[in-house]
Amino acid sequence: MLAGVSEGYYARLEQGREKHPSEQVLNALTRVFGLDAEAAEHLHQLAWQGLRTRESAPIDNCLAAHLVRLIDTWDTPALIMSRRFDVLAANDGGRALFSMLGAETSLPRFIFLDPRARQFYQDWQALAWACVASLRATSALHPKDRALRALVEELSAESEEFTWFWAKYDIRAKTHRTGWMVHPQVGALQLTYQSFTINGTPGHQLGTFQAEPGSPSERALRGLIRPGCDAPAGGPATGDGRCLDSSS
Q1: pLDDT tens for residues 58-78?
Q2: Residue 78 per-residue DSSP state
Q3: Residue 56, SS3?
Q4: How far apart are CA 222 and CA 147, in angstroms?
Q5: 86 within 8 A of 105, measured Cβ to Cβ
Q6: Does the reported pTM lie above 0.85?
Q7: Do residues 211 and 227 touch, judged by C-beta distance below 8 A?
């Protein structure tokens, strides 16, 4: 009633029998539900995905070599990930920061199935919620992604926390957050995570991790990436994180 549509029409929307709701109807539902901008965009994407003729072909194995070369030149820890948060590539900083992953390439598996993740992520609860909310958004827009469905089934079977978060049906794109990590080698790190979409390879995203300039976290992170840079007996460090010995 508040959205100005009939009960029968709204029932057809919920049941998926009404495939092409108008922009006016979607805007009215957004207003009535009190959706924020991100949830409203998700609603619109869900409503219009019925017009797609086919699912985009998976591109997980088509990693652009020039992107790998690009992040390899950075001191900032960086990862290239799939839409399921599989780590496809990492630079030296990314490998050092996430060294405890070992042979694991799935960040969601590490977060929910590896007990060490709760010590690594000091704000594990918030991070876990953000991970599930992002996977929920991705799964709704890519219903034919079999690998994603298999991941959700695996995590649902093995993690009560994942099942609880998944049932909440929260939607959030994991794009930016600041939190604490406790690395086994250098201790606590306050880092800001920022993700970027890679337009040339839809479904891939670039994630970077930065510390506040001049902070203890920056010094610890620099020492993790380039051991010895901040050791008392070592030479001074340059502004770009490189060490200078006495002969420089």
Answers
A1: 455 568 888 999 999 999 999
A2: E
A3: coil
A4: 36
A5: yes
A6: no
A7: no
